[in-house]
Amino acid sequence: MDWIEGFQASIDYMEQHLTEEADVEAIAAKAALSPFYYQRIFGALCGMTVGEYIRSRRMTLAAQELAGSEAKVIDIAMKYGYDSPDSFTKAFCRFHGITPSEARESGKVLRSLAPLHIKVTLEGGNMLDYRIVEKAPFTVIGLKRQFNSETSYQEIPKFWGEWANDMKGLEGTFGLCVDNNDTHGKVFDYWIADLYQPMEDIPDGLETYQVPGGLWAVFTCKGPLPQALQSVNTQVWTEWLPSLKGYMLAGSYNLEVYTPLKEDPNDNVAYIWVPLKKV
Q1: Which of 97, 106, 131, 200 lies 20 to 30 Å from 257, alpha-carbon distance?
Q2: What domain range is 99 assigned to?
Q3: Contact yes or no for 10/116 (Cβ under 8 A)
Q4: What is the rounded CA–CA span in Å between residue 82 and residue 76?
């Protein structure tokens, strides 16, 4: 339960700093995670991104202040991180469906998101096949693109679709996620890649990356893609990680490993590799 308590502490920290600029690195530190992993685990565990949670909580509190005080709209907008009444009004309308001025009218319906409280319920019945293996360092060659953590589930499949139209000599063995250290986990690099053979020429538009050696938890994903992969990814963070003993997450990267597609999508097999270290 220490892991869950740490994650709850990170949410409590967000709540205490809703009127300040979001510091994902400080938030993730409360859960003893890197921003890279925290963004992914939060999305899987809570059903929304860190940014969506913070915006929704700010809009909830802003509406309460508008309805229950005489404070000026501009003052409330500034308090919750908006530098102009227009940007605040647009965000407020998207969330509540009415303007800030209308929120002060009697009988208007306002949306509300309560603070999150993390609990783990053991339900059973969901098999998650995995093994822990040790791998030497290896180098991949591939096509790299940056993605935002908030939209990656939708945008990465589109990237694969574009690659399928112009494969650039790649078989697409790996999908490699690597933290972009300058963005505190908000943006990461995603590679469509293959193993790189030393001394081979590197075609224009492709790059190489050395994947560190060490221990990996390898999870099996069976069924239509990308649904099977995303489903297992959610299980990894919501079921497997909270019960992990003797190991902790390592690095700021993880791998998807693909095998040739089958005629029947239900027979497809792929793998998720998560780096670990012993504690």
Answers
A1: 200
A2: 2-104
A3: no
A4: 9
- Rounded Cα distance, 110 and 96, in Å: 6
- Do 205 and 87 lie in one domain? The reply is no
Degrees to nearest 5, angle at CA 156 with 221 and 7: 70
110 found inside a domain: no
Q: Which residues pair with 165 in a beta bridge?
A: none
Residue 229 lies in a domain: yes
Q: How many CB atoms lie within 10 A of CB 271?
A: 20
Please choose, from the candidates 119, 79, 75, 112, the residue with its C-alpha nearest in 3D space to the C-alpha of residue 96.
112
Q: Are 177 and 146 in contact (CB under 8 A)?
A: no
More reliable by pLDDT, 190 or 237: 190
Q: How many CA atoms lie within 13 A of 279 on its CB side?
A: 8
Q: Evaluate if residue 178 carries a pLDDT over 50.
A: yes
Cα of first residue to Cα of last residue in the chain, in angstroms, is 16
Proportion of the chain above pLDDT 70, given as a percent: 95
**Partners of residue 146 on adjacent β-strands:** 189
Number of domains in the chain: 2
